[in-house]
Amino acid sequence: MAKRDTFQDLALTPPREGHALWHWLYSQLRGVILNGRLKPGTRMPSTRNLAKQYGLSRGTVVAAFEHLQSEGYLEMQVGAGSFVATNFPADVVKVKTVGPAVATQALSQAGLAKRGKAMTQNVIALPASHSLGKAFRSHEPALDLFPVHLWNRLSSRVLRHAPRTLYGLGEALGYRPLRRAVAEYLGAARGVKCSADQILITSGAQQALDLIVRLLIDPGDAAWVEDPGYPGMASVLRAGGARVIPVPVDAHGLQVDVGVRRARKAKLAYVTPANQFPLGYVMPVERRLSLLQWALDAGAWIVEDDYDSEYRYSGRPVAALQGLDRSGCVIYVGTFTKMLFPSLRIGFLVLPERIVDAFAAAKSSVDRHAPTLDQAILAEFILEGHFGHHVRRMRQVYTERAGVLVESSREKLCGLMDVVPAEAGMRTVGWLRDGMDDLQVAEGAVSQGLEVSALSRFTLKHRCPGGLILGFAACNEAELRRGVDVLAGVLRRGA
Q: Of 9, 57, 118, 320, which residue has the fewest beta carbons closer than 10 angstroms?
């Protein structure tokens, strides 16, 4: 019997620009199965016929079918083809779909506590890395250049010789050899004054910030944040019930005098003094001392987020604010995810001695400790000098990539966008011509496959001129030039 094409009367919605075709087909077929337009037991057309009917590659259709099968919507019968699964409960296939906005609102608020609602507001979820080096991805390092073979060799050696105790519970503060290595590195490279006993290994920097707010902030406490600044900290503070005080940033970083006027008795100030996020400014020593004096007078904490300051492209990296602290009010936050690879999920805190025990107890309460074997591998990577070598190599590579971005932008974007030469970090800002809406420009760029963010998404109260955040570290030179070409087309259409 000839196979019947069951899709002639199913009006599938055309795919939207920028959506992966396999995912579009998967979503459409899943929808017609769930709403009953494709009945249980219905034979599916062959992947070849379906590809021809909708102008797709056969691989695209196969990918959609495989995903549907993995989730139980399709059943494969050897020699007979694919069929809609027959084991759906009747009430599932008859369910009425709710409009996306209504469904999202209902699900996001149902049963959540006040802290839960605050925790889910204005969160920017980063996409999984299904591709490498896409222009202008700003949240990843150069994964294409990470020494995977070296890491694998170290991993094999550690796992081969690890004592059985490493497979048991570890210290809440973290694997001691790693803490010792981190303390030594920070002292030499960042001017941080600490011992291994002040280091707490965390599951990334975001957990470090969450622990800080849980232990040091009561509901109603005021907390300064840079504006524009890192939205992840504002989200954590809101979830903890804090009163977030946006403090404007100028060319010298957070304006301490404005913060004092708005909330002199704030409990905490969050700053990125070595490489202000997202504008890249450096806080000079005079303002650092002013910030430290305010914290001493107010009995407040300073959270210093130092996530990618090792990458400075002129002169030596600026020393950490923590090295100037004499009163034990600075909590230093660092991470290896920006320096090595994001899935490592190892960050750290440098804590004043008086709060180490409290943070160790809180870490144990949250997730006991960071994965010990991963810590052991990282410790070997640092102690054998590979980490320092990798940072030095990446500093040179990022210098070159940043130069390509600026040079290409001057050629192709002149009069439309002014890309600032990066002094540090893995991203820079492109300032748009007056009158351009950065949200609209970013949306247009994303629709063309670029990964950019509007600067206005990082502001809370104080407006900035329109701009885009442009990452360069993750992209090779050819991809950066391609990205600039695409961006030029977007900007000309919007001009």
A: 9
